[in-house]
Write a structure and sequence with these properties.
Layout: E1 2-3, E2 24-25, H1 34-45, E3 53-58, H2 65-68, H3 77-80, E4 85-87, E5 94-96, H4 100-104, E6 109-116, H5 125-129, H6 144-152, E7 162-164, E8 201-202, H7 214-229, H8 239-247, H9 251-256, H10 264-270, H11 287-298, E9 302-306, H12 316-340, E10 347-352, E11 356-357, E12 369-370, E13 374-380, E14 387-389, E15 391-392, E16 399-401, E17 404-405, H13 406-417, E18 425-427, E19 433-435
Parallel strand pairs: 1-8, 3-9, 3-10, 6-14, 6-17, 7-9
Antiparallel strand pairs: 1-2, 4-5, 6-13, 10-13, 11-12, 15-16, 18-19
Helix pairs in contact: 1-8, 11-12
Length: about 450
């Protein structure tokens, strides 16, 4: 791995992260020779696709659908809970009072109230692949980021096609950015915030502050090249490997991950969160919403995030009041940002967790696991927004109208990316062709 050494920061970003957290580039975090392999395949196939992208915001633990997007104001108190619905800017659609910013831009959003088929397991896998982790083919199911990396490669040769921003957590299945499965490490996520245990290849004497000094950078690279060339490594690189080596020292990716380059007013719009992990879940990193936008704008095709911890078996309503306003601010800022920058037709956003939570409030003022119903938010991607898909019964127990499967959600995202799920296949490790989704089509109300 290549690390561009940064100076210690007395004043970290608003979420407590320093620049150095974002400047570990390459090595295993990028899947070994990911870019050389992708570049070879891209050149051989003559691929030249438009830059469509997906931002996936995973809510570890499963948000309570009855307090989030499907409130039941007519239900008994032990189901209704403490929160009330509020009107949105689309007539007839109501969401939680904790989401006033999203309510004001409901015309740019889609509410999914009837997602079915959750396995009930505490992991990001189903939200990253659209499939259960049970009965996988040889090598395992690949995530959407790895599929897109394989099919479309980099939109910009200096930016990885698949970036995972999920921070480490106590329960690491929640921090899964999306695995490459049978597509192999060449299509793994680039993880700028992780990489513990990997050896660093350091540009000696070149700090972050001197990165734009081309002479210093070239001098550092020359020394670096001489050091590794003595072992014959450089001589063994073909043109694609040398191009990939250049990517690792490109300033475009570094600058996309450096929020000091962003307009301070935009940074302020996204707000400040909490860098501390919530129990065994994740921190509330508002900066990741903005980083996701900067990365897709720079050329990433899929960016995955994980926000806080939503496994609220106790004190559910206290947690709602703490976390939902931050999610409201971050997601609304992201969606408004995409529209203002003309990216709303090209960037699809999805916000969801692994399942919903029990209609019945337990004795600890919490809600337990309820895989019978799940919910989510969609935005962008050229979809027909300003609508609700599906409905549940009076108590939010079961889907009563328009069930939506995980596969349909993924078929929609692939459609938005320009990938036809009816014809696209990938070969698993036994050579057997596998469709990207099982028996699912894009959600017809949206495309």
């Amino acid at each position: 791995m290549l690390t561009i050494q940064g100076q210690p920061q007395r004043h970290p970003f608003c979420d407590g992260l320093t620049r150095r957290n974002f400047l570990k580039i390459g090595g295993l975090a990028m899947g070994g020779l990911t870019l050389p392999q992708v570049l070879r395949a891209e050149a051989a196939a003559g691929i030249a696709k438009s830059h469509k992208s997906v931002i996936m915001i995973f809510l570890p633990g499963g948000p309570p659908h009855l307090d989030f997007l499907d409130l039941k104001s007519d239900a008994p108190a032990e189901i209704r809970g403490e929160l009330s619905p509020i009107k949105t800017n689309v007539a007839g659609i109501e969401i939680s009072e904790m989401l006033p910013r999203l309510a004001r831009i409901m015309d740019k959003l889609v509410v999914l109230r009837s997602i079915t088929g959750a396995t009930g397991d505490h992991y990001a896998f189903q939200c990253q692949t659209g499939r259960s982790h049970r009965q996988q083919p040889a090598g395992g199911w690949p995530s959407i980021g790895s599929v897109v990396s394989k099919f479309q490669g980099p939109a910009d040769p200096s930016v990885p096609p698949f970036v995972g921003l999920a921070p480490p957590m106590g329960h690491m299945p929640w921090a899964d950015p999306g695995q490459p499965g049978f597509l192999g490490i060449a299509n793994a996520a680039f993880q700028p915030g992780q990489g513990a245990g990997m050896n660093d290849l350091v540009l000696q004497g070149v700090s972050l502050d001197r990165l734009r000094d081309r002479r210093a950078l070239l001098s550092g690279l020359d020394r670096f090249r001489r050091d590794i060339d003595s072992s014959g490594t450089m001589a063994g690189m073909d043109a694609f490997e040398q191009q990939a080596f250049g990517v690792l020292t490109s300033s475009k990716l570094v600058e996309a991950l450096d929020l000091s380059k962003e307009d301070p007013r935009v940074v302020a719009r996204y707000g400040q969160g909490d860098p501390q992990n919530r129990d065994d879940g994740g921190p509330k990193l508002m900066s990741h919403f903005l980083l996701a936008r900067r990365l897709v704008e720079a050329g990433a095709r899929v960016v995955t995030c994980a926000f806080s911890r939503w496994d609220w078996h106790s004190q559910n309503f206290q947690a709602c009041r703490q976390d939902m306003p931050l999610l409201d601010q971050g997601v609304s800022a992201l969606v408004e940002d995409l529209y203002e920058r003309g990216l709303d037709q090209d960037v699809s956003v999805i916000v969801w967790g692994e399942f919903g939570r029990t209609p019945q409030i337990n004795k600890n003022a919490g809600r337990d696991h309820w895989p019978q119903v799940n919910c989510g938010l969609l935005a962008g991607g050229g979809m027909r927004t300003g609508q609700v898909i599906g409905a549940t019964n009076r108590y939010g127990e079961f889907v009563t109208q328009r069930p939506v499967t995980f596969g349909e959600v993924f078929a929609t995202l692939y459609h938005n990316l320009g990938i036809d799920v009816n014809t696209a296949t990938l070969h698993d490790l036994t050579g057997r062709p596998q469709y990207l989704v099982d028996h699912a089509q894009p959600i017809h109300e949206l495309v």
